[in-house]
Design goal:
This protein is an all-alpha fold. Helices cover 79% and strands 0% of the residues. It has four helices and no strands.
């Protein structure tokens, strides 16, 4: 149980941080494409600001999605013994895709600027898959030690 909790918290933190950085970098890329010059120091400042401002709020969304997705994946793994950790990776990706598409459907627009197109959505989903991999790695039960 303790390993699962640690894995869950780490998965949420990794996903939220990766998504925050993806969002910042995609916005910077769009601004540069329009001709804006963004000094390196300002880029770093914006990344830090998004990690401080966007990531904690987004982490709540990630946590809600992961809670459902990892519980379902865990249930499936109990019944289908041969299924490996890839199930949690897929669950993490599905949780983020579902959350982002649900918010867009409910609100009539994408509230996450970095995920407004196919590439951005794919990158955010990849961050969810990364979170699923983190959860699978840290939540894996230890095998009894033989003496």
């Amino acid at each position: 149980m303790k390993r699962a909790l640690v894995g869950f918290v780490l998965a949420v933190l990794v996903t939220a941080a990766a998504s925050s950085l993806i969002q910042t970098l995609r916005i910077h890329a769009a601004l540069v494409a329009l001709g804006a010059e963004i000094p390196f120091g300002l880029r770093l400042q914006a990344m830090a600001s998004d990690l401080w401002g966007f990531a904690p709020v987004y982490a709540l969304i990630v946590a809600g999605g992961f809670l459902i997705a990892f519980a379902v994946a865990g249930g499936i793994r109990r019944w289908a013994r041969g299924v490996g950790p890839g199930l949690h990776i897929a669950a993490g990706a599905a949780a983020i895709l579902t959350a982002l598409l649900s918010m867009e459907a409910l609100l009539g627009m994408s509230v996450v600027a970095g995920a407004r197109d196919g590439l951005g959505l794919g990158l955010f989903v990849a961050a969810g898959a990364l979170g699923g991999a983190v959860f699978a790695r840290f939540a894996k039960p230890r095998l009894p030690q033989s003496s």
